[in-house]
Design a protein that fits this description.
alpha+beta; six-stranded antiparallel β-sheet; single chain; elongated
Length: 272
């Protein structure tokens, strides 16, 4: 669905048709969409979305009509909804944005011009582990190549299957900031892997990226079968990762491992 009200694409939770590009190319983006399947609509909402998650269809319609600039991404960083307010803010039409990777389209950076957005999106990783995502500030590239500073709030819409979700990015434009004011702005969150690599604790730094991911899921209360399902591995492999974590952290239980990680600030304490 495209037009003045923005647009919507069926979330491809399997990720088989995810558009990934290192550089945004409008003509290529149009060709990809023109060659893709045409989605039937029911009452203005893509029918596959209604069929998979009926309860969010009314919410999606409200978001599409919202005066607040926003877009929605799937677990593969593909933009599946782009409303008219986002078009007015950043200049990209729904036809240009939907189906594109938000990484390639928006080139998100922090306020110090450090590249932040990537295919291994920290926000997606946090959502996959059911972690709280607090508001943060990024700079996006608009269609005219200018930069727009925005305060980003994330609304996490969980699906039925483990690891399936939609992320609503609500954008609040910020005025130009003086250099001294930038230090007071909330930085974008880091992935748990980045936090582990930067940890001052030598035991934490010995964990592999997969072990850090498993430890984060343990901290989120996931069981061994749940971890196995979310990571598409066997339960025995998940148990092996857990045993390796206990050995490297020199603890005797999963509860001790989680406590060790929280005490060393590998994870933030959830806000209840």
């Amino acid at each position: 669905m495209t037009g003045d009200r923005g647009g919507l694409l069926q979330p491809d939770l399997a990720g088989e048709t995810c558009v990934t590009k290192t550089r945004f190319d409008r003509s290529r983006s149009r060709r990809i969409r023109q060659s893709g399947e045409k989605l039937p609509e029911v009452d203005g909402i893509a029918a596959p979305v209604k069929r998979v998650v009926p309860i969010i269809a009314p919410l999606v319609r409200l978001l599409t009509d919202s005066p607040n600039p926003l877009f929605i991404t799937d677990p593969r960083n593909r933009i599946v909804l782009w409303n008219a307010a986002a078009e007015r803010m950043l200049g990209y039409t729904a036809e240009e944005a939907i189906g594109a990777s938000c990484v390639a389209l928006l080139h998100g950076c922090d306020l110090h011009e450090n590249h932040y957005c990537s295919e291994n999106c920290p926000i997606n990783q946090m959502a996959a582990h059911d972690r709280v995502i607090r508001p943060f500030v990024l700079r996006f590239r608009a269609s005219d190549s200018s930069t727009v500073s925005v305060d980003v709030s994330i609304l996490h819409l969980a699906m039925n299957a483990p690891g399936d979700f939609l992320l609503v990015h609500i954008l609040n434009p910020l005025p130009p900031l003086m250099p001294e004011a930038r230090e007071e702005i909330s930085p974008p969150p880091r992935s748990v892997q980045e936090a582990a690599r930067a940890s001052v604790d030598s035991r934490i730094r010995t964990l592999t990226p997969r072990e850090v991911e498993v430890l984060a899921m343990l901290a989120a209360g996931q069981s061994t079968p749940g971890i196995a399902a979310a990571l598409h591995i066997s339960a025995s492999t998940a148990r092996n990762h857990t045993q390796n974590i206990l050995k490297k952290l020199e603890v005797h239980s999963k509860a001790e491992a989680v406590s060790y990680a929280f005490k060393r600030q590998l994870f933030e304490i959830p806000v209840l």
